[in-house]
Amino acid sequence: MSQVTIEKDGSRKKTGNPVNQYKALFYKDEKLSSRVFVQGEPGMGKTAFLTKLALDWCDAVSEHNPDYKATFSDVDTLKEFQFLFQISLRDAMDQREVIEMIKTQIIDMIYTGNKRKQTVKLLPYILEREKYIVTMDGLNEWVDRLNKCVLPLHPQFHTECVSVITSRPWKMADERIKDSEINILIEIEGIIDSEDLTKKLINSLQTGDVKMHAEFIMYVNERQLMNLLTSPWLQTLLVNLWLNKMKFSGSLCEINGILLDILFKNAHGKKGYFQKGNSFRCLSNTRFIQRQIDIIDALANAAFNFTFSSSKSLVFTERELLNFLSEDQLEFCLHAGVLTKRYSFKIADQDAQFLFLHETVQEFMAALHIANSKQDLIKQFRTGSRYNVLEMSQTIIYLCGLDCKIADKLINCLVDDEFLQVISHGLSGYIKGFYKQEHLLAYQEDSCAQKNVLKSKHNQMDYNTRCLALSVLFQRMIIAGCIEARASGEKEICLNCRDFTFNTNLTESDSNALKLLLLYNCADVRSLILESNCLQISEILTVLNQSKHCLTRVKMTLTPEISKALHNTNIQELHCIGQLDVSSCSFVFPSLPQLTYVHIEHTRLTQDIVLLDTIQEIDFLKCESSSELLCASLITLSLLDHPVKCVLWDVVLQPFEKSRGDDSHTHIPELRSEMLSNDMSNIKISVDNGSKELFDLIRDTSIGILDMRTAKCATLASEILHTLNKLTDLHLCGTYTGRCDIKLPASLQCIRLLEGGCSSEWLCSLLITISSLDHPVECQLLNVVLQSSEEIRADEAHTHILDLRSEILSHDLSNIELFVKNGSAELFELLRDTSIGILGMMTADCASLASEIILTLNKLTKLYLLGTYTGRCDLKLPASLEYISLPDGGCSSEWLCSLLITLSSLDHPVECKLWNVILQSSEVTRGDEAHTHISDLRSEILSHDLSNIEILVKNGSAELFELLRDTSIGILSLMTAECTSLASQILHTLNKLTKIYLQGTYTGRCEIKLPASLQCISLQEGECSSEWLCSLLITLSSLDYPVECKLWNFVLQSSEEIREDEAHTHISDLRSEIQSHDLSNIEISVKNGSEELFELLRDTSLGILGLMTAYCTSLASEILHTLNRLTKLYLMGTYTDRCDLKLPASLQCICLHKGRFSSEWLCSLVITLFSFDHPVECELEDVVLESGLSASNYKLDWQRALYFKKIKSGITRKSEAHTHILNIRSQMLTHDLSNIKILVKNGSAELFELLRDTSINILT
């Protein structure tokens, strides 16, 4: 057994430290661990370990048996625990809570009658007060019946409890199992002392020392079966095979066949042999299966249906089994031991439960049914999740041994494009060096499954890790399938595979199998990673030549022959291992039209690397280059029209004066000048072990992103950073102490401390430096440890910290957006009382550490929380907070309720954004208390006024919206149509809801029930059908007060249910329906309208219309006069020429708001308003009047016009525009405008000159 650590990037790495004490199993850093996971492949001894643990505990707490040998030396550790409860999760398929499992599997089996009732009543008190162990065997065999929980529910307040949970590795890859829920992860790798177990088995299975251990080992070695000895189950079977002198090829299918044969023999089955060619090879030599083949077929059918039905089951009832087997057949299987029978001791259920001898036997039988069926069962499988193919891996491996073609067909069915893309992404990260060899554990080891990590989507590294893990697991399954097919004698290994990774982690047998698969698929290879020399040059060339059309990813040593073969391929990613012939690069690289990534190592660069403009990243590792060549390369990269990354790790740079002797002195200034004149903001440079020459080379350039992997690099770069005038992102790694003397450029937008450490002094001075920038700057502290300054003696530490805090408090940090991933109490204490503007917590642990100081951040306006939150929310929020966002993660109902209550205490509006948040059931709540608990939560939240809160929901759930039912939320934003659908049942209960914002696509009829408090509904972005919009407007018309409907960026679609020949009739019906309702209480505002939208509004009784652009106004111009109850019209945008709007007679007010209008347009509008036979208001708010004439010219021209009118004389010829304006003015003066009231806000001299001498009645 070995410990597995969870790395900061989420990857899981086996430490190599064996677990040989119970203390190491139960305790972490001297603290009792609440959850310990023990994982291992089938038959590795997980169940046996838990059984041995129970026996050790019994021996420890009772009188010692001197002959008993405990598993670990510190068995006395077990004395600390007063109770141990052993649970089989396969027997708890219909239960969710641990306490119920204990009642059923332990108490009901021991006690009866009143004693049982008393013990059940006492159990909760024991669990709350005593120190105990609960073991749960087979997490992969348990599924929550409500499909909500990934783990059985167990109260967190049982602080003196340790849960030991066993599982198969694929289950531990479930993204719902968060790393925060795993206190200790142990991998069980099989037998500690194989020899000791073998000797004990031999002694127990024979009378007398007839056969010895050495003979058995010789038998195993001859058949190359040593790898099977790590599994207790397989070792037991092998010993049996050896003792019974049976032939064996090493096939897992054959092992199962032999096992079944032995079991059937023990059940006194009839003897019979298969005729040659009439059975699967794994059954061909059996003696007791042929005559019982109908039982095998029935069992296989049952196994298939129980394994691959909609709800996988490993435990089934007699009634379910009798759908496949007769009573006699069932009796035989029980007698043989293929099936086992046990009773459920639930009071209400006395049915017996049945299960296969082992899960692997059920999987083998299911594979047998797939291979043997005359029907095409493959069609029944669907890619329900990207893990399906891995969850079925053992069945697929067996199927490879039975019928390789059918196995391949099944794999192709389960592996969809999304899964292939995930694998491709994982291998892309691997080839680019995201992970070192030690992170990629051996394929033959179970811990490959452990590469799955935190699934928070905000963290790209976590996603990369998960993708790599899936690619590792998938190749491991394919290799195992190939080995099984060969061992089973399959003539053609026809498994399709496109990605191949050969490295030193592979065993010889694995490498041989992968090589066989590669040569079979040599014409369809997508990824070829050769880190070990297991292929001949001729074999590599065959693959490269035949996969020219599809090969996209290569990592290998480039020989001249290989370089030639790569010419004109479609490779996108090329990792060159070892020293490279630069001249061959000039031949190969320009011929790769899709090349995006190149890695070059251990090479002296003597000439330019010529690349096509598709390149996105070029890595140089341990290379040597002249300054001139690097200069030229950066200039070339700057000419690309997309972002590009240049990695310079351990690159030795020759200074200018040594690069080309005297010739360089003339050429270098020209290159530097060209570098400085080029826009290099598209380039990201990553430097490890840089040099002063390198940083001097990029001085004053316009590179966009700089990534420095060590503190030494940052020191070398400190003198030139402020000269990088377009630098937006700065990434730092390493350890920093003392005062931060980095001079930052004014262009900086983000600084990331990726990993390492820094002193409090350094961080404080960094934040102060950032605060001096006059724009918002993001500062990310990811995997950074805050250290005490080495320069400070212990007796001066307190004074020093006070000085630091005084200094940081004296600066305004409100421009800083600080995001923290792995924080500490010391870090957040440093931030106490500061004026940070935005704070992001990337884990729940960070939020917990920061909870005490958040209240003191007096200028904090935004707070981002990621991670999983349970219990009650104890965050104390500052009065300055305006926005809180949960972008990713999960929270309990209790936590969310208490958060909303906390937000309601703020005396100003606040946004609460729930993006990709999963609402979880509180683990503290036991099932029988759940209803009461939720009721208490809802009562509490209903008693608070939440009308100051705006909630934004993207991926909601029915549970979330039920939690909001009847609350006093003020504003609700639903970012998808699915959210709106889920919320539709509770919207009308939100009695203080004033605004609803909708996004998404809506069709059919609008079924939303709106609350009586609603004042505005805004369709922000998306699409809707005419039918949906009509029914929404009709719903709004039923409200007995004014309501606003905003149509911002919404596209009106035709209903999908309407055929083209019926469209006209359908639109007519919709218009008839909407015209029959009074819409005069509705104000519609339109930003991006369409002809279809305005046609829908034709002849309606709309009361107010707002047109937010001139284009909208143009589209609406044809229908405005038909709106017979329109009283107000709002116009925004830019308007020129003459106003040709036809206005309805009902209009009482027109408002021109924040727009630009020509004099001609405004004059003609006023003239149009004159025609109304009732008073009408014209509001001019923040209007810019566009005219070619100044105010003084207006006055002069108007005086001249009056004079010429009196003497009826001609005027001097002017431009047509000037004359046109005068004509408009003359026309205005001839009309009686006394019915018009003009209201002006933020007017201009030009505007009032336009109104001079008119007959306007009221001016405000």
Assign a percent range to the helix content: 25-40%
Quick one: biggest sheet?
30 strands, parallel
How many strands in all?
Answer: 44
Radius of gyration from the alpha-carbon trace, in angstroms: 38 Å
pLDDT below 50 for ≥5 consecutive residues: which ranges? Answer: 344-350, 441-461, 657-662, 922-930, 1188-1214
| C-alpha end-to-end distance | 86 Å
The shape is: globular
Number of helices: 43
Mean pLDDT: 84
Approximate strand percentage: 15-25%
Structural class of the helix and strand makeup? alpha/beta
Question: Would you write up a description of this structure?
Answer:
InterPro entries: NACHT_NTPase (IPR007111), P-loop_NTPase (IPR027417). By secondary structure, the chain is of the alpha/beta class. 37% of the residues lie in helices and 20% in strands. The chain has 43 helices and 44 strands. The strands form 5 sheets. The chain has a 30-stranded parallel sheet that branches. The protein has a 7-stranded mixed sheet with strand order 2-1-9-5-8-7-6, sandwiched between helices. A 3-stranded antiparallel sheet has the order 10-12-11. Helix 18 packs across helix 19 (508-520), helix 36 runs parallel beside helix 37 and helix 40 packs parallel to helix 42 (1216-1229). The longest helix has 28 residues, at 460-487. It is globular. The N and C termini lie far apart (86 Å). Mean pLDDT is 84; it is low at 344-350, 441-461, 657-662, 922-930 and 1188-1214.
